[in-house]
Structure to design on (752 residues):
């Protein structure tokens, strides 16, 4: 019986290896499988001891073969490893890495989201004669061993909300958070609160958690991973992957595959390779801090030595984060940093994981600096030396001016104003008496003075609008090129609303792209907004020479980038500038749809962060105008994906310092940017007829099999679930933005 069990185990290992290789056939595995299948028949006359010896020899041979195959694994092979049903899961980690745990959420199919498992766990460490039980909050996706109700680790919005809730509990209790990423991506649902909306909140709140956060990534799929992966230390399993989109999804986009068709295997393999999704790719780029080596062909539940190594690395990472913000850390820090993996140094050196208030401030600052340094290699900075010097000078002058005006003078401003008002009131008493004497004297000598009716009229008449700066007579605001077309345009609502045909010249010029019958908004160029929203002559673009690049060396992508630059005249999909709206100074970042669909890569993220930093230094409000965005640029891989937490950290830093951050959506806005640095704004508005969501209709149908209604991503649906605060008519945007700048904001309304 034991012989058959051993033989069955070897057959399963061979079958597992064949699953990992997919459609590729390995002749050695095929031959080994046949040898195992005929083993008992060929050795029927052997004794039990001889059978065991032969089986042990086969076991050793298979182990050597597994190591040989392991060396030549492709990125797509590793994707198949993390998707395999025999892959370790979060439940295995809880059982084998932590000494005790209690689940507090996501136990079964009646929970908020059973795919998100949350547990209060303990790490027990013996130091000398004393035993220390160190608490930790463990959060992660559970794919389960064949448990279908877990939805394959694809988390719904309320699952991410539950995870955030308990991470905040950990912050209140001052205990570390360990997150484990086992997700192919979030479930693309827009029911309240909506996938993008909740992921954005998770990233924003996690960036401000005042406790150490350690993240371990096995399968990191896009925004679903980022919902719990914002961490001070990020570790990847050597056979894991971390990507902006699945290789199949990337291949479908690259190959322009239509619904129902399947991308060629060669294209899928190519996308997996060139997106640089493996652990060592991400380590090279600097998006993870370390890699934990797995057994050949990936860790499985019976690899107990791997769990010991994982435990050691997680404890060491937590110790390092805590010591990096604590005092009196030199000897312990050196001992942990220089230890050999075999000596179990993380267990022998004790570090208390609770931190005080000053250490918490240092923790948040180090977290910001960590993400700020990321992806610096992934874009091209074509500014000249003089341009860089001038940019640094502007930043320094803005910082100095703001420090003097707002940090120094403002401290005494209230006292000075109070004294001035008191003095003015005293003087007013004297001047009032003098005015009365002058009026009596004038009446005595017969000089005319204003009648009471004239005085009353001046006090009660309506105030006059201050005329705005007008452009020269020969200047003309930007007009859409479509206004020169001599044709009639049919409104898409003509069948239901009875809209009449509209002459293109009127529609795209006088009517500002708005149907005069039903109010449907036709898309307009981003140049139209820049010309018509801001005061004439006040737009000043900066960082124009920061250019999109091809950091992963994706095939044929540089040519497409060059074509987009030549066609649009832009160097990236983000335009950053300063301007005025009715004399209110603002800093603006625009995602322009004509450049690669307004997708975000390293250059766009860098420009967005720099614009936020400049707005913070100058104490200007910040406007993010989304002319359109298709999400994160898949050809840049994690160089684009990392912009989600990176830009969100910059947004939080700006808002927490008192800045006013407003987002305005237009046309189609989807995926990563909406699920991070755009969706986290407390003030979000949309132009009528725009569409907002986490995933487009095609992606939803492909991943869930659901047919969504036509208005699923409409701005009105986003308004009904609280994602945006209002819907604006295009013709009223300028007035509404000015009104918003006057009435909403943070602690410091700098621009007033």
């Amino acid at each position: 019986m034991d012989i058959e069990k051993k033989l069955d185990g070897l057959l399963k290992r061979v079958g597992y290896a064949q699953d990992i290789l997919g459609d590729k056939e390995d002749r050695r595995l095929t031959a080994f499988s046949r040898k195992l299948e005929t083993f008992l028949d060929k050795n029927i006359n052997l004794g039990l001891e001889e059978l065991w010896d032969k089986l042990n020899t086969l076991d050793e041979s298979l182990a050597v073969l597994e190591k040989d195959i392991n060396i030549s694994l492709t990125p797509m092979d590793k994707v198949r490893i993390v998707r395999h049903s025999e892959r370790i899961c979060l439940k295995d980690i809880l059982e084998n890495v932590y000494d005790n745990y209690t689940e507090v959420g996501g136990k079964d199919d009646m929970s908020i989201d059973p795919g998100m498992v949350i547990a209060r766990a303990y790490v027990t460490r013996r130091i000398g004669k004393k035993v220390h039980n160190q608490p930790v909050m463990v959060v992660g996706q559970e794919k389960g061993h064949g448990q279908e109700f877990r939805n394959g680790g694809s988390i719904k919005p309320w699952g991410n909300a539950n995870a955030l809730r308990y991470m905040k509990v950990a912050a209140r209790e001052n205990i570390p958070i360990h997150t484990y990423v086992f997700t192919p991506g979030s479930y693309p649902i827009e029911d309240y609160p909506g996938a993008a909306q909740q992921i954005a909140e998770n990233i924003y709140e996690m960036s401000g958690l005042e406790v150490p956060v350690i993240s371990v990534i096995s399968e990191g799929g896009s925004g679903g991973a980022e919902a719990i992966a914002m961490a001070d230390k990020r570790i990847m399993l050597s056979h894991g992957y971390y990507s902006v989109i699945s290789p199949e999804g990337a291949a479908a986009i690259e190959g322009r595959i239509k619904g129902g068709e399947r991308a060629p295997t060669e294209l899928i393999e190519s996308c997996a390779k060139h997106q640089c999704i493996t652990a060592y790719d991400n380590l090279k780029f600097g998006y993870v801090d370390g890699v934990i080596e797995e057994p050949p062909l990936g860790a499985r539940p019976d690899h107990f030595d791997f769990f010991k190594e994982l435990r050691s690395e997680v404890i060491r990472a937590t110790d390092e984060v805590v010591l990096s913000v604590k005092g009196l850390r030199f000897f312990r820090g050196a001992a942990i940093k220089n230890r050999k993996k075999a000596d179990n140094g993380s267990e022998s050196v004790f570090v208390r994981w609770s931190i005080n208030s000053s250490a918490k401030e240092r923790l948040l600052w180090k977290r910001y600096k960590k993400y700020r340094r990321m992806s610096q290699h992934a874009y091209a900075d074509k500014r000249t030396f003089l341009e860089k010097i001038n940019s640094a000078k502007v930043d320094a002058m803005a910082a100095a001016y703001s420090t003097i005006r707002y940090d120094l003078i403002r401290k005494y401003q209230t006292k000075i104003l109070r004294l001035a008002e008191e003095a003015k009131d005293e003087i007013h008493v004297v001047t009032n008496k003098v005015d009365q004497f002058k009026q009596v004297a004038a009446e005595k000598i017969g000089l005319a003075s204003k009648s009471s009716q004239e005085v009353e009229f001046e006090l009660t008449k309506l105030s006059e609008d201050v005329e705005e700066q007008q452009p020269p007579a020969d200047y003309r605001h930007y007009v859409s090129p479509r206004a020169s077309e001599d044709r009639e345009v049919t409104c898409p609502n003509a069948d239901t609303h009875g809209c009449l045909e509209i002459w293109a010249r009127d529609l795209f010029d006088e009517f500002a792209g708005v149907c005069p019958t039903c109010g449907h908004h036709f898309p307009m160029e981003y140049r139209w907004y820049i010309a018509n929203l801001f005061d004439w002559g006040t737009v000043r673009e900066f960082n124009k020479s920061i250019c999109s690049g091809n950091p992963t060396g994706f095939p044929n992508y540089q040519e497409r980038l060059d074509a987009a630059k030549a066609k649009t005249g832009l160097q990236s999909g983000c335009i950053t500038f300063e301007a005025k709206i009715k004399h209110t100074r603002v800093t603006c970042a625009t995602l322009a749809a004509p450049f690669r669909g307004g997708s975000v890569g390293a250059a766009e993220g860098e420009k967005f962060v720099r614009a936020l930093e400049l707005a913070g230094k100058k104490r200007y409000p910040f406007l993010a105008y989304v002319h359109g965005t298709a999400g994160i640029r898949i050809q840049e891989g994690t160089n684009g994906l990392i912009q989600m937490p990176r830009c969100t950290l910059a947004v939080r830093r700006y808002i927490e310092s008192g800045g006013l951050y407003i987002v305005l959506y237009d046309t189609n806005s989807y995926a990563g940017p909406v699920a991070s640095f755009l969706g986290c704004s407390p003030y979000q508005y949309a132009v009528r007829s725009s569409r907002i969501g986490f995933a487009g209709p095609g992606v939803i149908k492909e991943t869930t099999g659901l047919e969504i209604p036509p208005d699923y991503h409409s701005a009105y649906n986003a308004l009904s679930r609280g994602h945006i605060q209002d819907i604006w008519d295009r013709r009223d945007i300028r007035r509404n933005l000015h009104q918003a700048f006057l009435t909403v904001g943070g602690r410091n309304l700098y621009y007033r």
